[in-house]
Design the sequence.
């Protein structure tokens, strides 16, 4: 009996190890399915796959993190927070979970708490470019522009291949009154992504501030070639044409803008309504 008991214990332990390994393997399969669905933008179905993974293995960190990301994509920010908290219960050094929690909090308008999460993420991984960028975005909202600029510069030092970050840098420079300099950064964004409608549009607005109306028009035209339903671009093009005295063309643009976004009607200059 003394010889058998240790043997039985060893067999039970082995069986437990095998069951746990099988559970982890099955959980990973569900997570992989969820990732594919997530990348296809089928977020609800992705959530189902992550939930199946978590039924099999409730401590699957990747399933919790990815579920949080899917919930953010569905604008379910409070539910996403719960997922990231589950990860952090299991691993306080998970930079991705701190980042995801920060994103959820930022979308809930809890900017200071979001910043705290980003700081925790950066304490784990100081080279996390996306965290530096999103920290910059929040600091800009809080009108802490110099700090936002520093964070944006850090993000670009780590990853200079992000058109979105170059655009953000342009906007920050504009906020700080460095208008001419901001144009250089729009161009850097557009070198990386020539189909970046928001960058073309923002560059157009900047050129308009500098009274470079013909160049601004070209930017708005490029924006509208990429996205013909971009209402603010139709409105801004109309305003530029108005400044140039090209009233008929301006009215056509204002009509287009209001068609896509009726709220813009209140901003149209006098003389164009109801013509």
Sequence:
């Amino acid at each position: 009996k003394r010889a058998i008991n240790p043997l039985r214990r060893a067999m039970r332990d082995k069986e437990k190890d095998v069951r746990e390994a099988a559970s982890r393997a099955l959980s990973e399969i569900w997570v992989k399915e969820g990732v594919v669905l997530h990348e296809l933008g089928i977020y609800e179905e992705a959530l189902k796959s992550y939930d199946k993974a978590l039924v099999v293995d409730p401590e699957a960190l990747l399933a919790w993190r990815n579920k949080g990301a899917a919930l953010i994509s569905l604008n379910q920010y409070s539910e996403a927070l719960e997922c990231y908290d589950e990860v952090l219960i299991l691993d306080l050094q998970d930079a991705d979970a701190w980042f995801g929690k920060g994103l959820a909090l930022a979308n809930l308008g809890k900017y200071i708490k979001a910043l705290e999460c980003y700081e925790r993420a950066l304490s784990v991984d100081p080279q996390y470019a996306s965290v530096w960028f999103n920290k910059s975005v929040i600091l800009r909202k809080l009108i802490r522009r110099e700090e936002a600029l520093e964070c944006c510069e850090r993000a670009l030092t780590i990853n200079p291949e992000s058109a979105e970050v170059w655009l953000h840098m342009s906007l920050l420079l504009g906020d700080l009154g460095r208008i001419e300099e901001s144009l250089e950064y729009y161009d850097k964004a557009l070198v990386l992504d020539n189909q970046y409608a928001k960058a073309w549009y923002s560059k157009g607005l900047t050129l308009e501030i500098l009274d470079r109306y013909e160049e601004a028009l070209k930017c708005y035209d490029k924006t509208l070639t990429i996205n013909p339903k971009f209402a603010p671009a139709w409105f801004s093009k109309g305003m530029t044409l108005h400044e140039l005295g090209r009233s008929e063309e301006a009215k056509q643009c204002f009509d287009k803008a209001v068609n896509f976004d009726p709220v813009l009607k209140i901003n149209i200059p006098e003389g164009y309504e109801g013509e």
About this structure: Residues 129 and 155 are 5 Å apart (CA to CA). Residues 4-39 form the longest helix (36 residues). The two ends are 101 Å apart (CA to CA). The chain is about 75% helix and 0% strand.
